[in-house]
Amino acid sequence: MKWEVVIGLEVHTQLSTQSKIFSAASTAFGAEPNTQTAVVDIALPGALPVMNKVAVEKAIQFGLAIGAKVNRKSVFARKNYFYPDLPKGYQISQFELPVVEGGAITIRVGDEEKRINLTRAHLEEDAGKSVHEDFHGMSGIDLNRAGTPLLEIVSEPEMRSAAEAVAYAKALHSIVTWIGICDGNMQEGSFRCDVNVSVRRPGEPLGTRREIKNLNSFKFMEQAIKYEVNWQIEQIEDGHKIQQATILFDPDSGETRMMRSKEDAHDYRYFPDPDLPPLVISEDWIARVRSELPELPEAMQARFQQQYGLPKYDAVTLTSEQSIARYFEETVAAGVDAKQASNWIMGDPYDARSHFRKKDAPVTFTPNVNIGEEVVEEGLLVAHPLSPQDLASLLKRVADGTINRKTAKDVYDKMRESGDAADTIIERDGLKQENDAGAVEAIIDGVLAANQAMVDEYKSGKEKAFNALVGQCMKASKGKANPAQVNEILKRKLG
Question: What pLDDT shows up at residue 387?
Answer without folding.
Answer: 84
